[in-house]
Design brief:
This protein is an alpha/beta fold. It contains nine helices and 14 strands. The chain has one domain: Ribonuclease Z/Hydroxyacylglutathione hydrolase-like (Metallo-beta-lactamase, Chain A), CATH 3.60.15.10. InterPro entries: Metallo-B-lactamas, RibonucZ/Hydroxyglut_hydro.
């Protein structure tokens, strides 16, 4: 293949682009939580727009169809069916808490019956150790590849940089870069470490932990909605999506109320939604 042909292919890939899909946008117990009768959960029982599964995202090549998942939440099978996903090419982990890991078992038969080779799986040493502990019987399904802080990898023309965030040991957010978009995804984090914050300054899109409404029970591991907005806008994010939303910690807030609250930001701050797809 000559240099001109390589350049033509690269330009075609840039034009074709990629999509970024929020597979789930809720904190651990989802919205509605089965045990909760708060206004936010009851709103979600009435209105499908307000429902949230556990957090995960997907990056897919618009032309290649190559599919990268970040995390395997317990709702994964339903999320994959909803998005008409038929195969997965790579898997990245932010960390190995249940709400980001629990759906991994759904991929065993994809590997056994379709791929017939281990699925390339990336994460920190701590995250991969957690995967091995919880799903020890599935290790034959995974080709585990350790990432150190600030490591970069390129998958289907997209660069992923593993950036440390403030949560469990070894938790990463990912800076996701295409030829036209810089996007930072951090589903679980408190205030960002200084170097990570500098790396993501002025991104086009930031999708970040906004677990709590008002009072933050866990400031060393999560943001409140207000803290997420303050930090995201201070870092110059052009568009900020609130994700990992509990909607009923510390006090309930319905989606209708949240959308009204966010009107003051003139569209720059938006609630993420399950199934929302962005061109990147």
């Amino acid at each position: 293949m000559g240099a001109e042909e390589v350049e033509t292919n690269a330009l075609a890939q840039a034009r074709a682009g990629h999509t970024f899909t929020f597979m789930g946008t809720g904190a651990g117990c989802g919205v509605p939580a089965f045990f909760c009768d708060c206004p936010a959960c009851n709103e979600a029982r009435r209105d499908p727009r307000a429902r949230r599964g556990d957090c995960g995202v997907m990056v897919r090549g618009a032309e290649s169809g190559a599919t990268v998942l970040i995390d395997t939440p317990p709702d994964l099978r339903h999320q994959l069916i909803r998005e008409d996903v038929r195969t997965i090419d790579e898997l990245l982990y932010t960390h190995a808490h249940f709400d980001h890991l629990g759906g991994l078992g759904e991929l065993e038969y994809l590997v056994q019956l379709v791929k017939k080779e281990p699925l390339r799986t990336y994460g920190s040493a701590e995250a991969l150790a957690g995967v091995a502990q919880e799903f020890h019987y599935m290790m034959y399904c995974l080709d585990r590849r350790e990432l150190a802080p600030f490591d970069e990898l390129e998958l289907d023309g997209v660069r992923y940089t593993a950036l440390p965030v403030t949560h469990a040991p070894g938790t990463f957010g990912y800076l996701i870069e295409t030829p036209k978009t810089r996007l930072f995804y951090a589903s679980d984090t408190g205030a960002l470490p200084a170097e990570t914050a500098e790396r993501v300054r002025d991104v086009d899109i930031m999708a970040m932990d906004a677990t709590f409404w008002k009072h933050n029970w866990s400031p060393d591991a999560h943001h409140s909605i207000q803290e997420c907005i303050e930090e995201g806008l201070a870092l110059g994010a052009k568009t900020l999506y609130l994700t990992h939303l509990a909607m009923h910690y510390d006090e309930p807030i319905t989606l209708t109320q949240l959308e009204e609250y966010l009107q003051q930001y003139d569209g720059r701050v938006r609630p993420a939604a399950d199934g929302l797809t962005l061109d990147i």
